Amino acid sequence: MDTISTVRQKIKNIDYPLLIIILFLSIFGLMMIYSSSSTLSYLNFDTTNHFFMKQLQWLLVGMFFLAIAAILPYHLYSKLSPIFVFISIALLILVLLPGIGVERNNSQRWIQLGSFLFQPSEFIKLFMLIYFAHFYSKKQKIINQFQYGVLPPLLILAVVFLLILQQPDLGSAALILIACGMIVLCSGVKQRHLLMLGSIGILGISYFIYSSPYRLERLTSFANPFDNPLGDGYQLLNSYIAIGTGGFAGNGLGGSVQKLGFLPEAHTDFIMAVILEELGAFGLILVIGAYIFIMFRGIAIAKACTSMFPKLLAIGITFQIILQVIFNLGAVSGLLPITGIPLPLISYGGSSTLVSMISLGILLQISAKNNLTNGKAS
User: Fold this and answer.
1) Per-position DSSP letters for 276-314, written without gaps between them
2) For residue range 141-187, what is the model confidence (pLDDT) as tens digits?
3) Distance between CA atoms of 253 and 92, rounded to whole angstroms?
4) Which residues of 33-59 are buried (b: 16+ CB within 10 A; e: fewer)?
5) Is the pLDDT of residue 4 over 80?
6) Mapped to the 3 state alphabet, what secondary structure does 45-78 carry?
7) What burial class does residue 86 get, using C-beta atoms within 10 Å of its C-beta: 0-12 exposed, 13-18 middle, 19+ buried?
8) Whether the predicted pLDDT of 133 surpasses 90
9) Which is higher by pLDDT, 200 or 182?
10) Higher model confidence: residue 159 or residue 222?
């Protein structure tokens, strides 16, 4: 009876404004996935709703796990963090093995288990945040001792970073690096240690970019897409056309022309270009406004925490989601290189949707726990 009472109390104290925004983005994303993929779906599967139905299935699974994550005590994740680290490294090794890893678009980023295809790096984004939050919350007394209070998780992060680069997936590697860096920044590490780590991180990423012609070409082609309009610049130029065609008012829902085979990845990485083409500034304001709300709500939840683990985890989850938004919108607009980072809760993709839902479920749980123990809204 006590357990049932606790669950009821958590449901009562759930962060409903945040939950409403999560559901809004998910339903809006589902609608835009149908709009942006119906033609491609019909051509490949003889039905207009193939991708829509796939995403709906993942969304329902994601909502189930969101509910579980919103109820389970977040301290459980802290206890399981060493297991998450082991799973992360094991998955990153497995995805590179022939016969296990699946290659698509010159990248080996997926693992096939029967009919289940998933992207390990999506789950590792969350696993590493949990591990970093766990470690730095436990090492507060020796946080000024670099060798014991700061360094150990960074060595594991370096291994994860290098393994993800082998796929290759610089976008996900950089995203994990920056999100974990945000946790380190907020953990109380000395400024001189932060400056040293930041310098090493920048130098390391620069080395890996310039040491590979493929990575360098991917990261520089966005600056001059008109130099190769039928090659590396093709996707970005068609994104420009979609955005420019939509203008301020948009062409109306379903009115995109670029989704009819001109814009690659119209329902995945570049779905925002279709949103802008169809809904114009209105669509942009809706999407950006929702993500800004999540950012400020996440910061407020972190501030309300009285212990370090949920505080750091809330910070990590919030900024990882916002970083994904920045990476994605930057790529669509040509302000950042194209990295293949999806738009959270909106882009088509099972692994991304599931992990985003679980992450936000944890954030909801932290918020509910704050309400439960502190007797105040977060």
Assistant:
1) HHHHHHHHHHHHHHHHHHHHHHHHHHHHH-SSHHHHHHH
2) 888 888 888 889 999 999 999 999 888 888 899 899 999 999 999 98
3) 40
4) bbbbbbebbeeeeeeebbbbebbeebb
5) no
6) HCCCCHHHHHHHHHHHHHHHHHHHHHHCCCHHHH
7) exposed
8) yes
9) 182
10) 159
CA distances, 192 to each of 144, 182, 198, 234, 312 (Å): 10, 16, 10, 44, 20
Of the candidates 82, 162, 178, the residue with the CA atom closest to the CA atom of residue 130:
82
> What are the strands, taking DSSP E only, across the chain?
101-104, 107-113, 116-118
For the residues 219-226, what does the mean pLDDT come to? Answer: 70
Helix (H, G, I), strand (E, B) or coil at 101: strand
Q: Which residues pair with 117 in a beta bridge?
A: 112
* Neighbouring residues of 191: CB distance < 8 A, sequence distance ≥ 6: none
- Answer yes or no: is pLDDT of 372 > 50: no
d(CA 378, CA 242): 40
Nearest to 377 by CA among 303, 291, 314: 303
Taking CA atoms, 307 is separated from 70, 185, 312, 313, 314, in Å, by 18, 17, 9, 11, 11
CB neighbour list of residue 70: distance below 8 Å, 6 or more residues apart: 10, 14, 361, 362, 364, 365, 368
Amino acid identity of residue 249, one-letter, is A
pLDDT tens-place string over residues 242-251: 998 888 888 8
Taking residues 102-126, what's their average pLDDT? 83
Q: pTM of the predicted model, to two decimals?
A: 0.91
**Contact (CB, 8 A) for 69 and 354:** no
Eight-state DSSP code of residue 347: S
Is residue 272 within 8 A of residue 329, CB to CB? The reply is: yes
Q: Widest CA span of the chain, in angstroms?
A: 68
**What does the pLDDT look like over 29-74, one tens digit per residue?**
999 999 999 988 988 898 989 999 999 999 999 999 999 999 888 8
With tokens 């039928």, the residue in question is 230
CA distances to 216, 224, 244, 330 from 229, in Å? 18, 9, 17, 19
